[in-house]
Design goal:
alpha/beta, Rossmann fold, 23% strand, binds zinc ion
Length: 264
């Protein structure tokens, strides 16, 4: 019998280093914090019993702001992400991606901004399939535009600035979230705001480490924020960010007075 070769997926990630790396948000020292197999999904999909692929993904955590991240994918192109994560299997790992979540989010935007809708330009950043904007247009918003560099139909750069930019479940997917936030900021009118979701770490994250349910390379959850990390990230652009609930946030320089939103 000839020598057997182990055939594994042709996935190449950056080799881990035991050195402190600079935090992607605040440049604080970030040491190795935990490791998960590439195929590890978020908690909701654990029942799928996905086979391990033997590719370790190391996460680090910043000692200053608590940002939890991996640099394993920092050499990947958009095509690499499309091939290995946002591929035909992705919906299995994120079953609410298609209709349920965007329609629920559109309903929330309508409840908050319904009175101003006929004058509002809305951009959905990272909007995937355009379902949220279709719903907002049906609700009567003046304009609702989808932008998503991962989806060819919506990859064109949006024109001008928008009163409201929505960005649901996106920041945790970005290998360079500062770059992503910088791009979002360029789309926001002043006054104007960004309504975005990403789940921040619980206070007892150390009890779970990378086993905390929201961390999952196969879901593309590679940048996990704390409240402090979000504040540092947005402050670089002169934005405040307010935690509406642990998963939902509003960032802005100045809120339009006509919105009658009172922030803490
Ligand atoms: Zn940091």
């Amino acid at each position: 019998m000839g020598k057997k070769e182990l055939v594994v997926a042709t996935i190449t990630v950056r080799s881990p280093s035991s050195a402190n790396l600079a935090c992607k948000i605040c440049h604080g020292p970030s040491v190795l914090y935990g490791v998960l197999d590439f195929n590890h999904p978020c908690e909701e999909q654990k029942h799928l019993r996905v086979p391990l692929v033997g590719i370790p993904i190391y996460y680090r955590r910043c000692e200053t702001c608590g940002f939890l991240f991996t640099d394993a994918f920092d050499d990947w192109s958009l095509d690499d992400f499309k091939t290995h994560i946002y591929n035909g299997d992705y919906q299995i790992f994120d079953p609410h991606y298609c209709d349920e979540r965007p329609n629920a989010n559109a309903g929330m935007v309508m409840r908050i901004w319904g009175p101003q809708k006929t004058a509002m330009r809305v951009l959905d950043y990272g909007g995937g399939n355009g379902v949220l904007c279709t719903a907002l247009r049906a609700y009567g918003f003046k304009e609702a535009v989808t932008y998503d560099p991962m989806v060819q139909a919506y990859a064109g750069q949006p024109n001008g600035r928008f009163d409201l930019v929505t960005c649901f479940e996106t920041l945790e997917h970005l290998p360079d979230p500062m770059d992503g936030i910088g791009k979002i900021v360029k789309c926001v009118a002043d006054p104007g705001a960004v309504l975005y979701s990403t789940l921040i770490q619980p206070d007892d994250i150390h009890n779970y480490g990378v086993a905390w349910w929201y961390v999952g390379p196969r879901n593309g959850h590679i940048s996990i924020f704390t409240k402090q990390a979000l504040e540092v990230a947005w402050a670089k652009h002169g934005f405040k960010t307010v935690v509406l609930n642990p998963a939902l946030h509003l960032a802005y320089r100045n809120l339009p007075p006509g919105w009658n939103l009172t922030m803490p």
